[in-house]
Each structure stands twice: as structure tokens, then as C-alpha cells.
Design goal:
This protein has 683 residues and is of the alpha+beta class. It is built from 15 helices and 28 strands. The chain has four domains: 236 residues, no CATH class; 55 residues, no CATH class; 82 residues, no CATH class; 117 residues, hypothetical protein PF0899 fold, CATH 3.30.2320. The chain is 27% helix and 26% strand.
């Protein structure tokens, strides 16, 4: 038997189901949630959520290989987020979920989303997900669903999950469990537990990860779902000993987690958490409350809290000015009024930044900063966003200041994902043909050639430590993103020259520079000279398309190692050439024809660096102008052509806050016709 709803089709296993462990349910009901790290409740606007075609199904938000238990499809509809998919049998955690479900466990769902834009609603009411919500709350206007987790306890009273053998997914539709009676009774929901979450930033440009765990209400008698195994109904009950062992293991891990978070400082919280079965979220929240409640005993005001009405935006601008970001650059990004307001506070110390963030969120500001105060400050919503934005500005400043040779030799393109992207280009439509006496126009065939490109992600992390804060060492903190900006720019060149000098095999199965492609000079006569350069130019100009017709593109750039830089300038810039005439050198007063080529001289130390395969201090290259003819392509992910700084998760074992830098980039050769290589020496 089966049923059909508005957007799904369900078929019982006995009518053709595959007998696999299927999962379906409500992952988010569209209402308010209180999440760790957010000072106010938050509502995820499902109309602004990007929902991938499929997302991983995790166990309790454990983002590692063993924590992945399946895959689901998700659909945002009518102010709710529903999921359906499959639990992959065979894994320890997956089998435990199914076994405990058979034993009567009421599993619930939780979502992990990346917050890209949020707004604090301070007054009145606002309709989100079809429901009016009373302020104050954070309205998350833009987000991306990253994962769905199976959890024991969450925070949204409307969510639930069913594990069954009687569901079969049809195409990309969304499944939901069979409900025999559509009438529902009001249910009493348990108070929400604290979800698993990282402190998520609000209205900043930097995406943040928020794990929104949401508990289910206890089902009424008329709506209670049945949990069944994938095997036939006659199968004996699961091994009780195995289930008990799994439960004991989980409890030991929970106790160890509690002791680790408390760190020996909060014995009362530790004892209560163990006795009452708290999860990590509840423990983190209570420890944080305890940190915030602790007031220093000293009366010496080591931190001055300004009463000037600073906002998050002006605070960020003030710290940016102190970090050395040019005021005009800031004004373009943040507005002149903001920069002007921040001018008087551009000497603000790091402790002052922490104090202002605490004040902005209504927290008690200590007279001096100890470990508890620093941890409390790090828990604010605004501080991580301010620091990551300032670090991003310093990184971009350094990235843009570092010259990148590859950008003058390569074209740029945006790729949609990390898969190998095929790049097809029109190479020939054939010659125009005379029109016959009958007036018929001949059909022109189209020729294409294929190349590829593929992105990789390059990343590192760094930390703002307690020591830096106490010492007010902003420079030490910003040295890292500055260095990473330089490194990111150099990375582009490193990837390009590594590929160029390796002489890679192209899609046609032939090396980039080869006799087959007619774009290489070898032997002793290939050393850089007037004659060899003329010969290389001729080879470049003689390149033909797939139909055998001349490409007719002039070389534009002469790329040489640093050892040949000045010789290249002499050959291409002088008005006359020194010629060898018998026993003496004589000057022939004639025009330097090479100077008339207007070749741009580009020299690079990478060409002769022995760290790279194919390094040579004699080899040199001719390149066509990028855009006129294809050479190499620099690929970026969806238009993001600079590296990104993000704050990482708050770690209670570290007196500081982590940041990460990542850059999605890839470089591949495209067309051999846009380049010529000369070995510069005998092969």
C-alpha cells in the first residue's frame, strides 16, 4: 500500500520496496530557536535558504567519516523543512540508530546551516516562514543547508523523524511517513534543550556555521509513527547486549566530554550535568553563564568602556584604521560617515574592543580582563565578526599589493564546483564558400576543441590568543593574515609556473610543448638571441587552426628567467643591433626589427628555481595576449577571486579564537597555439 501527497509518493516495501533503511521527517518547523552563541532567539528564513540537491545525514553533528550515516534530500515548503533519504546500513552508528529505533527510541532531527546574512529585529513583529514572530530575534535572511543530523534531543518542538522499511523514494521527490489519522491532538512539548551550535555572527559579510538542533514533540496516539527495521517483520528482536554496550559507550563519552568542557573549574556544573544527562550544548551554555557571572575582585579600572554610542560598524572601522587600512578604502566599503565617526577611536586597544562588544550585547563589563572575561567576550556575536572582517581587510590588502605574474599571462574564469570542468571552445566553422548559380548557401560545420580545469582548496588557520589581548598586540595578530595574503598571491604564480614548466600532457594526449604541436625550439641555436627570437616569432605566427588555416595572432609577451632579463631588453628595445663582422664587432646602422614587435618583457625567478621540475636559466617563452588566444586559465569558484577569512569554532580548551583562511583556485593549460617555448640550450 502507499499514498501520494502534494509532492511525494510512498510505496510499501511489500509492493516493490527495496527493503533498505529509509529516513523521513521534519527537520525544522520554521519557528524560533535559542542557540548557543546567539544573544537572542533566531529564525531561519526558509525562503532565503539554499537547499542543495542532497545533503549528508550525520549522527549528532559529528562532521567526520565515521559520523556520516547516510544521505537525504531536503525540501523547504510551507514554512517547514522536510527531509527524506536513506540510512546507509553497515556502519556502527547507522546500525545503532536503527536498532535503538526498533527498541522504541524517539529520534529527532537537527540541521547544520551556514549563515550568510542576518538581521536583528529589535521591535514589533515580523512574519517569517508564514508565522508572525515577536521581537527581539535574529532573522537569518540568507543561509545554506550543509547537513542534517540524527539527535536524541533538540529544541524545535515541531520536528520528528521516522526510520522505516516501508518508504521508497521516487526520483527527487520528498517522502513523508504514512499517517493513518490526519486529526492531531495538542501535545505537551518538553522544554527546549540547548542545541549544538557554534557562535554565529550576525549581519557581517563573513558566512558563519550554525548548527540548529531541534527536538521533536512527543507524538499523540493518533500520530505516533512506527519505527521498523529493514528486515521482515518476523525477524527476532535486536541483540539487547549490543544495544546496552552501545549505550554504555555513549555514556562514557558523554561524561568525558562534560569533564573536558568544565576543565576542573566548575565542579557543581560537572556533577549536575552528569547526573541529569546534559548534552554538550547544555554544558557549554551553563559553563559560559558561569564565566559571565564571575566578576573580578579588583577595583582598578584596567579597561575603559566608552559611552560614545559606538556601533558594531564603527567599532570595526576604528579597529581597521588602527590596523593600517587606508581611510579612503574603508570609506568605499563602509561609508564616509562611519569612517569619520571611527576616527576618534582609531587608537582603541584590543581589550577595549572586547569591552565594547560586551557592552553592545548588554553584558557586564569587567574592570580588568581575566580568563573568564576573555571567554565571555569571545562568546559575543559581534566580536568574532569584527575580528574576522578586519583580518579579511588586511589579507586582501596584502593580496592585492603582491604582483601576480600569472594574471598577465592567463585568462580567468569562474567554475561552479570542484569537479573537473570541461571547457569547449569553437575552433573553426570552415571557409566561406561561393554561392552557386542556384543561390544555395553551403552549410558550415562547427569544430570544437576540449580543455579542462579543476579547482582545489588551499587553507591555513591562525589564532588570536589571550596573550595577544593582554599585551594589546594587534600587530602580531594581523601579521598572520597579512602573510597569508602574500602567500595566496604567490600561490597563483606557484601553481602556474609549476604547470608550465612540467610541460603537461594535454587532452589530445600530446605534451603542451612538442613537435606535434609545432611550438618548441631546441638545440644550441635556441639560446636567446636576435636570430632565435625571430625564429620563435615565425613559429608562433605559423600556427594553424583545426582546418589548417593560419590563426593569425601576434605574440605579445616574452617570458624569461631573471638571468635573461637584460638581454631580452637589449634585444627588443635598442634602435640598432651590434653585429659580428669578422675579427671586430661593427655596428650596422639599421632599424631593430625586434623592437617593432612591442614585446612585453616579463621575467620570473620561478623559471630557474630548482624546486620546480623543468627549471632552467636558459629556457624562454612567447605568449599571445590573453583573451586574444587561449593559453592557461585561472579558475575561481563562483566569482570569488580572492582568499577568504572566517572565524572558526570557539574552543573552550583554547584561550583565544581561531580563524581560517581558504582560497579556491585551479590553473590548467587550454590551447598550445598561444605559446611557444625555446629550450635555450642543446637538449
Amino acid at each position: 500500500m502507499g499514498k501520494t501527497s502534494e509532492y511525494l509518493e510512498i510505496t510499501a516495501a511489500k509492493d516493490g520496496g527495496d527493503g533498505k533503511h529509509k529516513v523521513a521527517g521534519l527537520a525544522y518547523g520554521g519557528g524560533k530557536m535559542r542557540l548557543f552563541g546567539w544573544s537572542k532567539p533566531m529564525v531561519l528564513d526558509l525562503s532565503g535558504m539554499t537547499v542543495p540537491e542532497s545533503v549528508p545525514l550525520l549522527a549528532n553533528h559529528e562532521n567526520h567519516t565515521l559520523g556520516r550515516v547516510g544521505v537525504v534530500n531536503a525540501k523547504a515548503e510551507n514554512g517547514h523543512l522536510a527531509i527524506a533519504g536513506e540510512i546507509v546500513a553497515g556502519g556502527e552508528l547507522a546500525e545503532a540508530i536503527v536498532a535503538q529505533g526498533k527498541a522504541g527510541a524517539d529520534w529527532q532531527l537537527s540541521i547544520g546551516a551556514e549563515v550568510e546574512a542576518a538581521e536583528l529585529v529589535q521591535e514589533g513583529r515580523r512574519k517569517v516562514n508564514g508565522v508572525e514572530h515577536t521581537a527581539p530575534f535574529y532573522h537569518v535572511t540568507k543561509s545554506t543547508l550543509r547537513e542534517v543530523s540524527v539527535v536524541a534531543v533538540g529544541a524545535d518542538r515541531s520536528t520528528h523523524m521516522t526510520v522505516t522499511a516501508q518508504l521508497q523514494l521516487k526520483g527527487n521527490s520528498i517522502m513523508e511517513p504514512e499517517v493513518t489519522n490526519k486529526e492531531t491532538k495538542p501535545v505537551e512539548a518538553a522544554a527546549p534543550a540547548t542545541p549544538t551550535a557554534t557562535p554565529a555572527a550576525v549581519p557581517t559579510d563573513t558566512p558563519k556555521k550554525v548548527t540548529a538542533s531541534a527536538p521533536a514533540a512527543q507524538p499523540s496516539e493518533t500520530t505516533k509513527t512506527v519505527v521498523a527495521a529493514a528486515a521482515p517483520a518476523q525477524e527476532p528482536a535486536p541483540d539487547a547486549k549490543a544495544i546496552a554496550a552501545e549505550a554504555i559507550k555513549a555514556e562514557r563519552e558523554r561524561v568525558a566530554m562534560i569533564k573536558g568542557v568544565c576543565g576542573g573549574e566548575f565542579a557543581d556544573i560537572e556533577a549536575k550535568a552528569i547526573a541529569e544527562g546534559w548534552d554538550r550544548n547544555r554544558v557549554n551554555e551553563e559553563v559560559l553563564k558561569a564565566y559571565r557571572a564571575k566578576q573580578p575582585t579588583t577595583s582598578a579600572p584596567a579597561v575603559t568602556v566608552k559611552k560614545s554610542g559606538m556601533t558594531v560598524k564603527t567599532l570595526e572601522a576604528a579597529l581597521s584604521l588602527r590596523a593600517g587600512i587606508d581611510g579612503d578604502t574603508l570609506a568605499k566599503d563602509m561609508g564616509e560617515e562611519t569612517v569619520e565617526a571611527a576616527m576618534k577611536d582609531c587608537d582603541i586597544p584590543l581589550q577595549g574592543v572586547l569591552a565594547e562588544c560586551m557592552r553592545l550585547e548588554g553584558m557586564n563589563v569587567p574592570r580588568t580582563f581575566d580568563n573568564a572575561a576573555i571567554k565571555a567576550a569571545f562568546s559575543t556575536v559581534s566580536l568574532p565578526g569584527i575580528l574576522s572582517n578586519v583580518a579579511q581587510k588586511k589579507l586582501l590588502q596584502a593580496y592585492r599589493a603582491q604582483p601576480i605574474i600569472a594574471t598577465s599571462l592567463c585568462t580567468s574564469a569562474d567554475l561552479s564546483d570542484f569537479k573537473e570542468n570541461e571547457r569547449f571552445r569553437l575552433t573553426d566553422i570552415g571557409d566561406l564558400k561561393p554561392v552557386g548559380a542556384d543561390g544555395e548557401i553551403k552549410d558550415g560545420g562547427v569544430s570544437e576543441e576540449k580543455a579542462v580545469n579543476q579547482l582545489d582548496t588551499y587553507a591555513k588557520k591562525f589564532c588570536l590568543t589571550r596573550k595577544m589581548i593582554i599585551n594589546d598586540d594587534l600587530g602580531a595578530f594581523l601579521k598572520v593574515p597579512t602573510a597569508m595574503g602574500n602567500r595566496a598571491a604567490r600561490l597563483v604564480d606557484q601553481l602556474f609556473f609549476e604547470r608550465l614548466m612540467a610541460n603537461p600532457t594535454m587532452v589530445d594526449g600530446k605534451p603542451l610543448f612538442s613537435s606535434n604541436h609545432k611550438n618548441i625550439l631546441t638545440g644550441a641555436t635556441s639560446a636567446l638571441s636576435a636570430d632565435s627570437l625571430k625564429k620563435a616569432i615565425k613559429v608562433f605566427l605559423d600556427q594553424t587552426d583545426a582546418d589548417g588555416q593560419p590563426v593569425n595572432v601576434e605574440p605579445s609577451i616574452l617570458l624569461v628567467p631573471t638571468a635573461l632579463k637584460f638581454l631580452a631588453v637589449e634585444l627588443t628595445r635598442g634602435a640598432a643591433l651590434m653585429m659580428s663582422g669578422g675579427a671586430e664587432n661593427t655596428i650596422r646602422p639599421t632599424l631593430n626589427v625586434l623592437a617593432d614587435q612591442n614585446l612585453q618583457i616579463v621575467s620570473s625567478p620561478y623559471l630557474s628555481n630548482t624546486k620546480y621540475a623543468g627549471a632552467s636559466d636558459t629556457a624562454w617563452y612567447l605568449f599571445g595576449k590573453p583573451g586574444t588566444v587561449d593559453t592557461f586559465e585561472i579558475g575561481y569558484l563562483k566569482g570569488k577571486r580572492t582568499p577568504t577569512v572566517e572565524r572558526g569554532d570557539l574552543d573552550f580548551n583554547v584561550l583565544g579564537i581561531w580563524f581560517r583562511v581558504y582560497f579556491d583556485v585551479g590553473i590548467r593549460e587550454q590551447d598550445h597555439r598561444g605559446m611557444v617555448k625555446s629550450n635555450g640550450a642543446a637538449a
